[in-house]
Amino acid sequence: MALMITDECINCDVCEPECPNDAITMGLTIYEIDPNKCTECVGHYDVPQCRQVCPVDCIPLHPEHVETHDQLMTKYRALTGKEN
Q1: pTM
Q2: What is the DSSP string of 38-79?
């Protein structure tokens, strides 16, 4: 599953630099996660880094982008060109 940022986001700016896939960008009012780039940090880290640093816990799984670990790994490989 890709992650998403809810409207509880306080725009603290800590999540964006933590994303290894550059999936997090500033939207109109809050940060947003591009589900086509989000691998939940699979291939990079054991846990999603944005969730680790978020002070308000506003980054849940995105219910409209359900993906298995294997699908996330395939996306990681496509994004990075790495075989991990």
Answers
A1: 0.92
A2: --TTTTT-SS-HHHHH-TT----B-TT----HHHHHHHHHHH
CA distance 78 to 84: 11
d(CA 70, CA 58): 25
Q: Confirm if 18 and 50 have CB atoms less than 8 A apart.
A: yes
The distance in angstroms from the start CA to the end CA of the chain is 19
Q: What domains are there in the chain, each with its CATH number?
A: 16-80 (3.30.70.20)
> What distance in Å separates the CA atoms of residue 82 and residue 74, rounded to the nearest whole number?
10
Lookup: tokens for 49: 């880094």
What are 1-21's pLDDT values in tens digits? 799 999 999 999 999 999 999
Cβ-contact 15, 24 below 8 angstroms: yes
